[in-house]
Amino acid sequence: MRAVLIGQTGKPELVEVPLPIVGRGEVVIKMIACGICGTDIEKIKGHYKGSMPVIGHEAVGSVEEVGDDVSGFRKGIIVVPHHHVECGKCYYCIHGSETMCPEYRKYNFIPGGFAEFFKLPAWIVSNGGIHVPPRNINPEEATLTEPLACCIRALKRVGLKRGINALILGLGPIGLLFIKLLRYYEAESVIGYDLTEYRLKMAEKAGAKVVHSDNVATELPYIVDRRGVDLTILATGSMKGLATALDCTRPGGIVCLFGLPPHNSKLDYDISRLVNYELSIVTSNAATKKEMDEALKLISEGVIKVDDIITHRLSLDRFGEALEIYESRDCGKIIITP
Questions:
Q1: Is residue 256 part of a domain?
Q2: DSSP codes joined into one string, 246-284
Q3: Shared domain check, 319 and 226
Q4: Taking CA 180 as the corner, what is the angle to CA 179 and CA 185, rounded to the nearest 5 degrees?
Q5: Which residues pair with 323 in a beta bridge?
Q6: pLDDT of residue 97
Q7: Which domain holds residue 96?
Q8: Measuring CA to CA, which residue among 222, 167, 160 is closest to residue 192?
Q9: Are 63 and 27 in contact (CB under 8 A)?
């Protein structure tokens, strides 16, 4: 079968690999679609060190083969698997830090989601990592389940309140999902900023007010009736962006650091300002089984519409072209198909 893997050169390569052989407790999935995530790009560039260099996790597929001791799944049903699953029993899970569970990042799709077929380890299967969507869901739209789940968890971590003013820095697919969620949660205003005109237009269509000025902080007073916003979400890994986020957030406000900075990134900022203005930085990483279920429900019921976020669909043999489109930034979500 064909699969896109990170080769010995550190670059993604389309290669022929053996079909995965199902083992006890495992499930083999036939890929229907898999979204390209910013984390995939960081792994390809060698910037991400948080888990194994396996790419392709926003996958949707149909069950191809079920191993012994697996019940509840049959060949042909559509599923949305989650690549990392918490145990639910350890100290971290019990205390609300499920994505810090020691087991969380140990497992992944084999050989990855950008493959015609991939295998789910027994840990993922037995710990609730396979989510079954309603029959009427569009499989391509279901690839947005995991990124939406991550956004939902981030808004929980910041203690989101209705009626706030929010600013989103970085208007890729994640930024667009945040816009849709914040509008659903009745934010008073949602403001977006990005360097790319294409993405600014997408954000406007999603319902955000957009900032065109390079100096975001100077334009905010003309958009909100007080200096700064209640919540700034940094949906990019730029450390310069984090400094901007802090400057744009009102005294007592919150900055959510969501985008993943490159490994060993440093912040050059006047830390005394954080204390003087009671600015809070809240980080958020990944999602749990609960948020996966919540996200899948929102998408399947049409509460959060994601079809307009998907702008490109390319086959496995055009993966290199997909990366070029991603780097151009003139795109929303890019979906890879077999």
A1: yes
A2: HHHEEEEEEEEE-S-PPTT------HHHHHHTT-EEEE-
A3: no
A4: 95
A5: none
A6: 96
A7: 2-148+286-337
A8: 167
A9: yes
CATH no. for residue 305? Answer: 3.90.180.10
What residues in the chain have per-residue pLDDT under 50?
none
Q: Rounded distance, CA 65 to CA 3, Å?
A: 18
The CA radius of gyration of the chain, in Å to the nearest whole number, is 20
- Answering whether pTM is above 0.90, one says yes
Tokens of 323: 């990366």
Residue 34's nearest CA partner among 14, 55, 52, 60 is 60
Residues in the chain: 338
Are 275 and 300 part of one and the same domain?
no
In this prediction, residue 50 carries a pLDDT of 58
Whether the CB-CB separation of 204 and 186 falls below 8 Å is answered with no
pLDDT score, position 222: 61
Are 12 and 127 found together in one domain?
Answer: yes
- What are the pLDDT digits (tens) for 204-224? 999 999 988 777 877 776 666
Q: Environment class of residue 8 by beta-carbon count within 10 Å: exposed (0-12), middle (13-18) or buried (19+)?
A: exposed
User: Does residue 223 sit in the same domain as residue 295?
Assistant: no
Residues 90 and 208 in one domain: no
Per-residue pLDDT, 308:
96
* pLDDT at residue 7, as a whole number: 79
Per the structure, the count of domains in the chain is 2
pLDDT at 260: 83
**DSSP calls for 188-222:** SEEEEE-S-HHHHHHHHHTT-EEE-SS-HHHHGGG
